[in-house]
Amino acid sequence: MKKVVIIGHFAKKQNFLDGQTIKTIIFTEELERFFGKDNVERINTFCWKKNPFKLFLKSILAVLNCKNVLFFTDQGGIKVFPWLLTISNIFGKCKIHYVVIGGWLPEFMKKHGILRFFTKKLDYIYVETSTMKKSLDEQGFGNVYIVPNCKELDILERQELVYNECEPFRLCTFSRVMREKGIEDAAKAVTKINEKYGKIIYTLDIYGQVDPEQTEWFEELKKNFPEYIQYKGCAPFDKSVEILKNYFALLFPTYYESEGFAGTLLDAFASGLPVIASNWKYNSEIVKEGTTGTLYNLEEDDGLFEKLNYLYKNTDVREKMRINCLQEAEKYTPKNVISRIISKIN
Fold this sequence. Notes:
Elements: E1 2-8, H1 19-35, E2 40-44, H2 52-65, E3 66-73, H3 81-88, E4 95-100, H4 105-111, H5 113-120, E5 124-127, H6 130-138, E6 144-146, E7 169-174, H7 183-197, E8 202-207, H8 215-223, E9 229-233, H9 240-244, E10 249-252, H10 263-270, E11 275-278, H11 283-286, E12 293-296, H12 303-313, H13 315-329, H14 334-342
Helix pairs in contact: 1-14, 4-6, 7-12, 10-13
């Protein structure tokens, strides 16, 4: 009998760089290190629609034949797994753990009473922020625990910090490339501040996988990029710190509806890179104002522009942020974070 079965989107042979796949793999590998690979089984939901009955059967057998089932899912899987696993576990021999990806679950549960009923029956629900937990607690959930996002990163030592002393200062975005991640807003703000000073104060490099449904939008956007804004493609999963350490700040102007604890913020912290982020969803819980970065309100037309201007004029503030980022990164190593789940597996 396996100690742990993990149901999630692995697709490791494919070039998937989305938060769901990355988080599933990180958590799984840490559990395999702790319990041993022989005690951990993977069930891959990649392309499950081609043979849904096979996935359902594997999931049911997992509940019947192991001690703990962990499932990682987005808004598609939540419509299936809570009731499927709960009904399969009618005699209560297996512990069912739900690792939430993103920040959408509280609002979703308000609108789906039947799913809310089955989700409350799960043994453990792990959310990424205290705000999510509070919202679910208010809906009558008593099985919610905070397990923030994490990454296995080579956190820089203080002496390894790269200080940017000369203009132009290098900025970057490091997320999926889509309109809702604020990519266009970042480009506009950088263009505006350079025009204000009549010289190139900042450059902007855009990293990330382009959303397949928004390639046409991005191709049109790129046509209007000045020379100091460039698309750099997809960064290797294990090279984020090596790349980001050479930048001045990371821009995260997201207004993505399902945003949770974005992994790109961990990449920035480990690189000693201050973050300029929108005050959207849970960003204020993760980016500490004036300590690891700064936040602006999306309602302010020039919010991002003003923050860029502020950091440009305040050298002492941004350099202190670099050191603080390294200290913050230590909280989010897989070993420290996933121990919260391991303590509930027996």
